[in-house]
Write a structure and sequence with these properties.
The complex is a heterodimer of chains A (300) and B (357). With 300 residues, chain A is mainly α. Chain A contains twelve helices and no strands. Chain A is 72% helix and 0% strand. The termini of chain A are far apart. Chain B is of the alpha+beta class and 357 residues long. In chain B, the strands form four sheets. In chain B, strands 6-7-8-3-9-10 form a six-stranded mixed sheet, with helices on both faces. Chain B has a six-stranded antiparallel sheet with strand order 13-12-11-14-20-21, with no helix packed on it. Chain B has a five-stranded antiparallel sheet with strand order 15-19-16-17-18, with no helix packed on it. Classes of the chains: A mainly alpha (300), B alpha+beta (357).
Chain lengths: 300, 357
């Protein structure tokens, strides 16, 4: 039995396009677009998910509360301080590792793989085992850096100044490999003949680094900075795993505070939505600055 | 401004033999060309001279001093790479300034500026000086990289197929410019190419390389008129030399089916001898001793390449201007017997004794 072609049900090109795009569109709208706008609406209300009262419009009151409260400003300050230090250290260490690993030596392959391991672990797991390692009485960190006496050893997670550094160390340990990976991609794309030409031109090694290596990897370094900055501004899981925001609120980043507002105590959905939007605006603004810089570098 | 001498240089990459006992003596101010097919070892030779590659055996001398252990930076060579190798993110001016600004030299700013302006003028890139290198055409890029070589007066120019990425027109004009530049700058130049026309037109002397060995060294005339082997004979000259087997009989050389016959005076009798005839040494004329059929014509304007079929083999002949012979027509032709080339069946040149070569 051969059906005539006209009777056969055939998908037109247009329908095939719809078939591929629609599922994605539906999921995107349901999971991203709708919550985005709904939370924007909620940020202007006094809504709480655990109360049975309908959202009531309060205008900019939530934003006003947040921006006039010194405790919120402290969270922003902590997050900013954390972001600048951790991103700077990751860039330095990651790029430095890339420069070392770029030269092929015996075992460089296996060493590269080992360096990448922290990146593949779950942040919660990382947070929890570093918390054990930081422990003042049985943690290995103090033992390794030479403090064998419990009474004089630094209390990493108990001191307000050290606790933020404790998180920074873990973040740097975990994500420098990522910067290294991006830098390596950039470094290996630099053609050998540029270095050979420079060698013949009698360029010094600092000159070669500054005028050839750095400009050539700059676009990828900026992408690494962009990725790591966004991640650092959103830092939540490591903090929760290691300090839970403590001691006191010394390591309470904006995201941790956001979590407390949204899912603890009063379940203040309206206020937390407003806070989430403030974070979003900050991240978009910073990302735009980076991307503008990136385009400038790319154009040469 | 230097004499370059290579003494039995050998180099292997892993299992692969790149250079085998290469010896060269390049005179001061000479334009020396290395000619050979891909993989012959031309580029490796150049890189050994520059110091970018270390030879396994043999020595490199600049003038009379041994430079084997001197790093590339201190050999004072200038290298023009096939892939332009301009520094990106820099303007043409900055690229030209780069070799002068090295902390290992001291040129003052005015001197640097003067040298750059001078080089730019010679290469006609003055209008491009402020341009970023990414916005240049291939020909402009290669001019800039040649410019980077001439801003300082190096002991030797090393050029690795600098023209091969350019289109034919540009290649021709840069060829002339380069030769002119070399003569006015008076710098010893080593130029690598696989293009026999480039080699013949530019070289004072050239070396033919194959499989890491030097086959022949000589002036373009030597190479063309007295090729040391069938390899060299076939490498230089377009259209290719006609090469065919002959047999020795009665003091003469006969092509296998007797269509052609040559005087063998001065040759040692051998069972088989290869005879080479350059296409321009075959002339079609009514008084010719041999005959053949015209099978194809390639008119080039100035001359026409005529494909002739004898009973034995196909021969190429060059006829000045446009040929009026019809395809399929049988024509008579003459061979300039003074300019025959004889080779053994292994491809070695045989010099006819008592015959002026």
């Amino acid at each position: 039995m051969i059906k005539s072609p006209s009777k056969r049900r055939q998908l037109s090109d247009r329908n095939i396009i719809l078939l591929f795009i629609l599922p994605t569109m539906i999921i995107l709208v349901l999971m991203n677009i709708y919550p985005l706008f709904y939370s924007l609406y909620l940020s202007f209300t006094d809504y709480s998910v655990i109360s049975s009262v309908a959202p009531k419009w309060v205008g900019f009151q939530n934003y006003q509360t947040i921006l006039s409260d010194t405790r919120f400003w402290k969270h922003f300050a902590i997050t900013g301080q954390y972001t600048i230090i951790t991103v700077a250290l990751q860039m330095l260490i990651g790029f430095g590792l890339a420069l070392l690993i770029k030269e092929k030596f015996w075992g460089s392959g296996i060493i590269t793989t080992l360096i990448l391991v922290p990146m593949m672990l779950s942040p919660v797991v990382v947070g929890l085992f570093w918390r054990l390692m930081y422990h003042p009485s049985y943690g290995i960190v103090n033992y390794l850096i030479g403090f064998r006496n419990i009474n004089t050893a630094p209390e990493w997670l108990g001191s307000p100044t050290l606790a933020l550094w404790a998180i920074i160390i873990v973040d740097v340990w975990m994500w420098s490999p990522f910067v290294m990976l991006l830098s390596l991609a950039g470094l290996s794309a630099i053609p050998d003949y540029l270095y050979e030409a420079a060698a013949i031109d009698r360029a010094g090694s600092w000159f070669i680094f500054r005028r050839i290596t750095l400009p050539q990897v700059m676009p990828l370094l900026l992408i690494a900075v962009l990725f790591r900055t966004i991640e650092a501004l959103k830092q939540f899981d490591l903090v929760m795993g290691i300090t839970g925001g403590g001691p006191g609120d010394a390591t309470e980043t904006v995201s941790v505070r956001l979590y407390r507002e949204a899912f603890q105590g009063q379940f203040d959905t309206g206020l937390s939505s407003a806070l989430a939007y403030i974070v979003l605006i900050v991240i978009i603004a910073i990302s735009n600055l980076y991307i503008r810089q990136l385009n400038k570098v790319r154009e040469g | 401004m230097s004499r370059i001498r290579l003494e039995t240089i050998s180099k292997t990459f892993g299992e692969e033999l790149a250079l085998s006992k290469v010896s060269l003596d390049i005179q001061d101010n000479e334009f020396f060309v290395l000619l050979g097919p891909t993989g012959a070892g031309k580029t490796t030779t150049l890189r050994v001279i520059a110091g970018l590659e270390k030879q396994d055996a043999g020595h490199v001398y600049f003038d009379e001093s041994l430079v084997d252990s001197i790093p590339p930076a201190d050999r004072d060579t200038a290298f023009v790479f096939q892939q332009y190798s301009l520094y990106p993110n820099m303007t043409v001016y900055e690229n030209l300034a780069f070799p002068l600004k090295s902390p290992l030299r001291n040129f003052d700013a005015a001197d640097i500026d003067r040298r750059i302006k001078d080089a730019a003028e010679k290469l006609r890139i003055t209008h491009l000086l402020e341009r970023k290198t990414a916005r240049l055409s291939g020909g402009e890029m290669q001019r800039v990289s040649i410019g980077r070589a001439i801003v300082r007066k190096p002991r030797v120019f090393l050029m690795d197929e600098p023209l091969s990425n350019l289109d034919a027109k540009l290649r021709e004009s840069l060829r002339v410019e380069l030769k002119h530049l070399q003569k006015t700058q008076e710098v010893t130049t080593l130029f690598v190419t696989h293009d026999q026309i480039e080699a013949l037109t530019m070289a004072d002397r050239l070396a033919v390389l194959n499989n890491g060995k030097i086959i022949q060294i000589g002036s373009p005339d030597d190479i063309y008129d007295r090729p040391a082997s069938t390899f060299v004979a076939q490498l230089v000259g377009t259209p290719r030399i006609n090469l065919f087997e002959t047999e020795f009989a009665g003091g003469k050389l006969h092509s296998l089916k007797n269509a052609l016959e040559f005087d063998a005076t001065g040759l040692e009798p051998a069972s088989k001898t290869l005879v080479g005839i350059r296409p321009e040494d075959i002339s079609i004329s009514a008084q010719g001793t041999f005959h053949a059929k015209v099978v194809l014509k390639e008119p080039l304007g100035v001359e026409t390449i005529v494909h002739l079929q004898t009973e034995d083999n196909k021969l190429l002949a060059i006829v000045p201007g446009i040929s009026h012979h019809q395809i399929g027509e049988t024509v008579k032709f003459e061979v300039n017997s003074d300019r025959l080339h004889f080779f053994t069946t292994e491809g070695e040149r045989i010099e006819a004794k008592g015959v002026a070569a």
